[in-house]
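Example 3.2
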Amino acid sequence: MITIYVNQKEVTVKPNTNILQLLQHLNTPLQGVAVAIKDNIIPNSKWETQQLSNQDQVLIIQATQGG
């Protein structure tokens, strides 16, 4: 298992986990979401191929409605 930090909270995942698998594991909706690793935004077209590494700092931002 590897340890990553999602929005500054420690999360343990299997090695070779990709962003899409992480979002599914966290029950995060896939629409209206932006993901960054180490301050680099990862386009959703790369979520299936971008693997997470031990100690990665992941930021997940979800769009909200309102005004």
